[in-house]
Amino acid sequence: MLPRVIIIGRPNVGKSTLFNRLVGKKLALVDDQPGVTRDRRFGDVELAGMKFTIVDTAGWEDEDPSTLPGRMRAQTEVSISDADAVLFVIDARAGLTPLDNEIGNWLRTADVPVIVVANKAEGRSGDSGILEAFSLGLGEPLGISAEHGEGTADLFEALWPIIGEKSEAAEALVALDEDEEDENGVPTGPLKLAIVGRPNAGKSTLINRLLGEDRLLTGPEAGITRDSIAIDWQWPDPQSGETREIRLIDTAGMRKKRNVVEKLEKLSVADARRAVDFAEVVVLLLDATKGLEHQDLKIASLAIEEGRALMIAINKWDVAAEPSKLFNGIKFALDEGLAQVRGLPVIAVSAKTGKGLDQMIAAAFELRETWSKRVSTSALNRWFDDALEANPPPAPGGKRIKLRYITQAGTRPPRFVVFGSRLDMLPTSYERYLVNGIRRELGFGAVPVRVVLKASKNPYAEGC
Asked: Could you tell me the residue range of the domain that residue 141 belongs to?
């Protein structure tokens, strides 16, 4: 493993800005209001050739452990258990606060090296705050500006004696290829599995159940998750006995667009949409106590439009009323509301008891395999010829539409190109006939299938 460096500090000192600066991407949500970050977020850093994992944490607040801020602090406290170093971030312009001193007292009792980082020290505005930070008794503070990228060289010099040797040793062992395929073209890298749904459907609770630990912040409050959090996990397949790699992606709950008015929630929803685009398989988590709502169909349509393989999991099955009626009703509503991908896998699960979770993961691997499937050109055109013979294309206005051949242009999602003449006259209903035939006859099931019509370049084709 790469060495792990944890960012800790009170709210609004610039922890997530520093995280984004080090990873070189805007992965963590950043806003002026305090308490934006709630769950731990991991990122890979290469700083002047030194590689390590950086962990962003929630702002430390002195609140009752049963409250949301208190539970956020507990997540932060847990984060240093496997840390190689801690970056304790303070606001150099504001100077030390009583909460900074409380965090410093706690860190002095921890068995982990601590580097005090005085952020927002651009110009000379933070000089007094840097001098104050000496009183923490945690060594010489570093003055930096995460927003402007100042002080990263000093940060490297401070971290190298602590993690440099471990970074070099780990680098020789790290050789991950997430897009690796076997000889049949089936992906063998980690399954990128995103869990999406409305607020309070139980997404974070489900992931915690899979992991067997309270990795993500949960509670009765709706909308706890803000950032999309990716977690690498190994699933012990009960059927084969093998261990399979998965990257679980937790996302913020998606409410109806008209209800999303706050800037921070808009950022969270946009982050969730990006997570869908990053995923291979998307699990739409429904709440069994609320059934299928219009917003669920909107979220499902988003995943399908992005070309992701989609499946449905009905959570809280242990408290569902009339479960058989509910299950059949949801399947019927899905077929009606998502006619373009009828037959989506639907699985009843319970994040509380663990019911159906292994079945859900196994189905996700099968779905990815289908989503990545490639059909040989010969087999594809045999099907195509049979489909044309069974139902020839129409001849609008007496003009014959000629469909010549088909080829598979890509996978993930499956993409096909149909070549012919007068394709602009081909009815949409006939395109649906071809797409449904590909799904039904060639084994693509309910994964999104793209069919593109391409006119022949032969100048004599129109007369054929």
From this structure: 4-171
